[in-house]
Amino acid sequence: MSINWNKMLLASTVFMFIMFSIVIFYVDPMIDGKDGSGVIALQLSFFVDRAIEVVNSWGIGGADRFKKYIFTDYIYAIAYVLFFVSVLKVLINKKRASNRYNFFVYFAILAGILDWVENSIEVAFVSNMQNFSEAIFFLHSVISVVKWSALPIVLIGIFMLIFKKSKWEL
User: Fold this and answer.
1) 152 burial class (0-12, 13-18, 19+ CB within 10 angstroms)?
2) What is the DSSP secondary structure assignment for residue 47, as one 8-state letter?
3) For residue 85, is it within any domain?
4) pLDDT, tens digit, for every residue of 67-84?
5) Domain hosting residue 91, numbered range
6) Exposed, middle or buried by CB within 10 Å (0-12, 13-18, 19+), for 54?
């Protein structure tokens, strides 16, 4: 059984935009009580003391809302991985590109896996902030940086494929 990447692209685009809208415009602002950037600030805090300040800035119930709705970010990670993989696979097939372009597919998958690891560490942290390991939290923020760095690499792959001529390789 082979995957119809064109149909997968259509479905994953709808899925990704639904999850993007839910997470960015509803869940994250509800968690931090502002524009949602407090959730990203937690990812990039690096130090437990700073992370505790970030979570406390969410106000009463912010940590509970985070734990209650973090599942949406796990789903969002699946959505954007499916979307990016579908875009890449459609372009690879359309341009008859070599298998080396699968390198970018692996980066999309890596970003999603790192997002899940990041989320899991954040749930553990928010559940026990006062006794959380500094080393694990620092590693969590490094994982977040690597995840955020993987996504532009995926976009570079997409643009390379978009502008690739059919008769030659970039």
Assistant:
1) exposed
2) S
3) yes
4) 999 999 999 999 999 999
5) 5-162
6) buried
